[in-house]
Amino acid sequence: MADGVWEAAVADRPADAAGRWAVVTHGLHVYRLLVWMWIRSTLAYRVSFAMTALGNFAASALDFVALLLMFSRIDVLGGFSLPEVALLYGLAGMAMHLADLLMGSMDRLGSRIRDGSLDTLLLRPVPVFAQLAADRFALRRLGGISQSAVVLGWALAHVDVAWSAGRVLMVPVMVLTGTAIFGAVFTAGAAFQFWAQDAAQVQNSFTYGGRAMLQYPPTVFARDLVRGVVFVVPLAFVNWVPALWLLGRPEPLGLPPWVAFLGPAVAALLCAAAGLLWRRALAAYRSTGS
Amino acid sequence: MLYAAVATGSFRRYATYRVATAAGVFTNTVFGFIVAYSYTALWDQRPHLGGYDLPQAMTFAWTGQALLAATSLLGGGGIDELQDRIRTGDIAIDLHRPADLQLWWLAADLGRAVLQLIGRGVVPLTVGACFFELALPREPLTWLLFLTSALLAVVVSFGLRYLVALASFWLLDGAGLAMIAGLAAMFFSGMVLPLPVFPDALAHAAQLLPWAGLLQVPADVLLGARTGAGALQGLLLQAGWAVALLALGRLVQSYATRKVVVNGG
């Protein structure tokens, strides 16, 4: 490792832009190394990996089974057909599970603060964020990702959409935007644990809870709740707002149609805000010293 | 008495984590709203689906959230610790204690469950009652029946989780089995969708399985789908499964402890 990178990583705020860039590339490099290490360690126990990945697939499928059981009794839910609901489900699932794969272990921060093992991470010349995000990288979450992908694929084949280049492009954009939004939520949730170590559960409300909510059409929920998900915690940009445009349906809050394309901007803003929050929280951290 | 002390100790242990309890209440409440709204849409389309009217369906949704932590439907709840102790070999120390392993863990689990029933059950149900029309009973006797049923649900849940934990005596990694057991509990307890909404044949079969005792029976007692003889029948089903599972657990435990060889020093 170059000395400059070492210093840049140790110093909390490198002075110039080049130094900051070095920290980021260094962090990404280490993240890749750590992830690769965990993947190799996971694949050392192939049967165990296969079982847990299968379990992850099944756990993720449980909500869809519930939807299928509902649709065995009804034809439309909140005015949406099964393929349309499956589209929402697949998009929300893909985004949440991808973010969960990339940085889902961040929720262990609270217990790391409590048992003091965060201090060990702080001593290493590597950004703590990269270490925490890669910590116990759970390859089994590919199970949930593939389950969502299967449902998404089925939904895309069955929804009634006049496909154009723009609409086709919107699908990967939605997945990436959604992953970034959920990633920001994971980061903010982890930062929150610096203040309340035992409150790891709260972020489940926004990640798993968010996914559970987004899999239903917005018409199912009270207007105020939808407003909250658009304006306060903008999870609606994961799938609701862009998917309604894709399906050619009116946006439930009566927002202008161009709002459907704001997803990437919202995601970028949210990531920046979460990053700032993370820096503030980390800078204010005081170890118990034990 | 020893086991009462274990139960109280466990109750106080979980009472210590107030922030965690508050965080759990928040999560249960958020999920309560999501489930309640999705059921509203479902019952809008099909009123009286599964024999429930809308307030009863809402009660089911919120009861599920209120009982989720107490019955450890999502796993956890102390028994994970037993699984760890078996895996690491610490269980050898437990076996030297002048106490019965099963009763010890049952007492600890009951202490935890009572705390979580109060700490994580009351608030979500109250919030639910404020925002939705619930079908909550007026007679104190029904509430008493519900609490008995909820307690039996904890014992049935313990019986199931104890068996899963004991499997670690044979399996090196019990995570896969625990996952499958958790999924079965979610699906067949009614947590994913009330059992009467299932296709008829599946619904009838699921109503007799032990998992029905985790949520479906207590919820039905509370929302008035099981009254009088029906309620007693439900409680008997729970008690029957509780006894059967505890007896099976005892059998497996005696077999496991006879063959156990602890590695390491």
From TrEMBL, chain A:
The chain crosses the membrane at residues 51-74, 86-104, 169-196, 225-246, 258-278. Keywords: Membrane, Transmembrane, Transmembrane helix. InterPro entries: ABC-2_transporter-like (IPR010390). The keyword Membrane applies. Signal peptide: none annotated. It comes from the Bacteria. This is ABC transporter permease.
From TrEMBL, chain B:
The keyword Nucleotide-binding does not apply. It comes from the Bacteria. Keywords: Membrane, Transmembrane, Transmembrane helix. InterPro entries: ABC-2_transporter-like (IPR010390). Pfam families: ABC2_membrane_6. The chain crosses the membrane at residues 19-39, 59-79, 117-136, 142-163, 170-193, 230-249. This is ABC transporter permease. It comes from Streptomyces ramulosus.
